[in-house]
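Any chance you could type out a protein's amino acid sequence plus the matching backbone structure tokens because I've never seen that pairing?

——
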Amino acid sequence: MEKVSLLSSMTRENLPERVDLQKKDGDPRKTAYFVNTLMNYHRVVQIWKDFGALEKVTFTDDKKAQSDVEKGISVKLRKETWEERRHMASEHCLTVEAGCRVLGQALEEKGLIDGFDLKMLSSAALIHDAGKFLEFNLVSMALIDNPDKEKMLDFIKSQYGLYYLDSEAQEDMNNAVEEIINCGQSGTRGLIAYDLASRINGRRLITARVNEGLVEIQAQVGHSSCPEMENLLNEFEGKMGHARQLAVVKLVIHYVDDIVTNPNIIDPGISVLPDGSRQNALDRRCEQNEKNAKYKDYNLAWPEYSKRGNGETAFQMQKRVGKMVEAKLAELLGIEDPLTLPAVINQRIEMNILDFTSKKNR
């Protein structure tokens, strides 16, 4: 195996003044900040482990190692093999938490949420993709021609692990898998599997003694939560007190998850297209999803599956509703141009990291 240098040359002695959140550069200030986040939410790491979010794979291909590092994936050399996480769910959760925290802090400054809401928001962000391993594999099994019923059932049971598979969960699992097996449309099978995975992950979190309110908040992400987000926005002005604060928390986690693009960054840039239209991180995230071949079938199957009657694909809906959420959050914060919201979030994350570093070094 050739020696490939994948380590950052950055040390505490040659740190730049700014923190660059757009690339993985080994900046120890970012590492310390995110490690501290997990120290404050120690149960999260155990949930990640139990749900398979920290599983690792090994390989020997140096070119793949270099390519993955360039994509922002953490790769380590272990004797004669390279090692990396099977997927980036934990890094994604940390990025979403950082964004939710600063947006939550800004809203707390406006008196729109309180410290308890902020704590719930951070906790929800850290666990919202803990079950990504189950979701990814279950959807993949459903998308192939002639899905294997027993293989799917065995896989689901294996993912419950320490968590109790009660009669209600057993019935739901059997019914959904049967529906998948009897469905002739690949994309619809994928959507059924996606929703089943979401329900299973919610049950696993509750069995792990996660607060039910927290489980509800962490589910407000992705295309499947868009109908509820749209209803929430339509009813927002009529909400008061705790109900209004909860609505704000749900809007925040939905929005921040929507603007995290590969490789787990919140891009502050605004692009101007040839036709004069402007795009930000939300537009780019939805475009990434639209272009992802793995999502194609169930994206196109959404109009019939959801029975919403407007012909939107899953990601067309996600972009439209995401823009509505973006506009509402900008309005609440008094931000004139909603497209600048990702830049505001990115700047405040950098400020949090620098502030943490300053306090730590006193």
Q: What stands out?
A: Residues 179 and 192 are 8 Å apart (CA to CA). DSSP finds 16 helices and seven strands in the chain. Residues 129-211 form one domain.
